[in-house]
UniProtKB/TrEMBL annotation:
Coiled coil: none annotated. Keywords: Signal. It holds the Pfam family Oxidored_molyb. Gene3D superfamilies: Oxidoreductase, molybdopterin-binding domain. Residues 1-25 form the signal peptide. Residues 77-146 form the Oxidoreductase molybdopterin-binding domain. This is Oxidoreductase molybdopterin-binding domain-containing protein. It comes from the Bacteria. The keyword Signal applies.
Length: 173
């Protein structure tokens, strides 16, 4: 009797397991209540609006954040940028693509191989020196690398990936 009961529970668990994957992630993602500042599309499991993942600033702030203090070739002095690591954002969305296509409000678009993302670099910065970034400050979102931490981040290729005024990400195979 015990063996039969365990078998029934195991079978039920196997049948219900597919219902806990992407459908759960989709249901768990909130919809933006403020202005949408980022739309992620492509090969993602978690969505909230018409097959995309849309974020307002508060939704991004709710994700684990890191800060990077660095200089950039576009600004003066050492600045502190705070935001969500791109790798964490993609993990949250259940991304399965190989390339991240990042686009700015002026349609500047660059491809970033997902296998080049590190745990804490680059970040999708939404704060500059503790305050929200505005368009004049290359915000509201800016892809930031820790340029000062390693020479590998001071190349023209990496600089081209530091998209400011980012508003769209597409994940492609």
């Amino acid at each position: 009797m015990r063996k039969t009961r365990r078998s029934v529970f195991a079978l039920a668990a196997c049948l219900l397991l597919p219902l806990t994957g992407p459908a759960w992630a989709t249901d768990a993602m909130d919809t933006p209540s403020g202005d949408v500042i980022l739309t992620v599309s492509g090969t993602i499991d978690a969505t909230n609006v018409d097959g995309t993942a849309q974020y307002d600033l508060e939704m991004l702030r709710a994700l684990p954040a890191v800060s990077i203090s660095t200089t950039t070739i576009w600004t003066d002095g050492v600045l502190m940028f705070t935001g969500v690591p791109l790798a964490s954002l993609l993990e949250t969305l259940g991304s399965s693509g190989s390339t991240l296509r990042a686009s700015a409000i002026n349609d500047y678009t660059i491809e970033i191989p997902i296998d080049t993302l590190e745990a804490n670099a680059p970040i999708l910065a939404y704060e500059l020196n503790g305050a929200p970034m505005h368009r004049r400050e290359k915000g509201p979102l800016w892809v930031i690398y820790p340029f000062d931490s390693d020479p590998k981040y001071r190349t023209s290729q990496v600089h081209s990936r530091a998209v400011w005024q980012l508003d769209r990400i597409e994940i492609v195979d």
